[in-house]
Amino acid sequence: MLVDAIGKRPEETVRVAITGPGDPLAVPDTLLQTINLVRDRYPRLRISLKTLGCGARRFAADLARAGVDYVEMVVNGVTGEILEKIYAWIRPGLKTMTLQEAAYVLITEQKHGIPALKYQGIGVVVVTTLYPGCNVHHVNRIAAAVQELGADALALVPYRAEPDGEVVLEPGEVDPLEHARWSVPPAMPIVSPLLADDDGYAGNYRQGAARLPRPSLLRPLVAVASSGGLDVDLHLGRAERLLIYGCREDGLVCLRETRPAPQPGSGRQRWQDLSDLLSDCCALLTVQAGETPRRVLQENGVRVMLTDGQIEPLVEQIFGGDKGGRSAGGKPPR
C-alpha cells in the first residue's frame, strides 16, 4: 500500500505517518520493524508517529535511531478525574487495571515520555481533543504541564461524535475551540495536527483559522525557514537565511526577499536580533524551534508556527488564500 501511495505522488510525499488503528507503541517490535522497512526503501522520507505515549520513554532512543523525527502525543487530561470522564477504559499494557489505576499509569507514561522523546531530538506536538463538559476548561492545565515537559506545541481538535457511538456529547453555549485557545499560555504555540487519525482526519491551518495570525499594515510579511524554497523543512536554529513572503500590489502572494539570519553564539540576544530583523513580519514558519526563541519572538510580536509541507499553500492561508487567493511564489535566489 505504501509503495502504491508513493508511486502515485512521489514528488509530493515527504512524510510517512504511523497512526494505527490502535496505538503503534502497543506493539513496539512490529512498529520498529515497519519503520526500518520504510527507511530502507525510502531513506529520504520523514517518519512520524501518533501515540498515547505508553512506552514512549522506554523506546525513545530506539525510535530516534530508527529515524522518527516527529511525534504527536494524544493528551486529553493531566488528572485522573478528567480522564475518567473521557475514557470508558484504558489498557496501558497486558495487565487488566481499573480505570483509575490505568489513568494514573497513562499520566505517568506521558509525563516521562515527552522529555524522553525531546532528549532524543524528536519533535513533540501534544494533541488534545476538546470534549464538551469534560476537558475544555482543563486545557490551560494541559498546556502548562506539557510546556513544562518540553513539548514543542499544542494542537486542539474539535470533538466529533462517533457514528455508532453510545454516547454523544452535546455542545455547550461556549465555543470549545475559542475558549480553549485563549486559555493556553502565550508562549505555547497552537498548531494544527499534521497526522491523520483512525478516521482519516488530519488538521491543517485552515481548520485552526481562528488562531492564524493575519498580516497588518505594520506587519505585512511572513518569514519561512526553508533549505530549498519549496518546503518548510528547517529547524529555526539551523536556518542561515529566511525567506520573506508578502503580497504584490495586484494581491498575489510571492517571495519578496531573503534575509540572513543572525549567527549562533550570542544566546538570547540572537533571538532578540531576529525579532528586530522580522519586525515587519506577523509570523515565522519553521519545522521546530526551541522554547527561548519562541518566547522572545512571541514577546516581540512574531508568531512562531511549527509545521512542515509546501510553503505556498501554508503562506496562502495566512494571507487569506483559502478564500480564493492566488499565488505567484517561486524558488528563492541562491
UniProtKB/TrEMBL annotation:
Transmembrane segments: none annotated. Residues 231-317 form the Dinitrogenase iron-molybdenum cofactor biosynthesis domain. This is Nitrogen fixation protein NifB. It comes from Desulfofustis glycolicus DSM 9705.
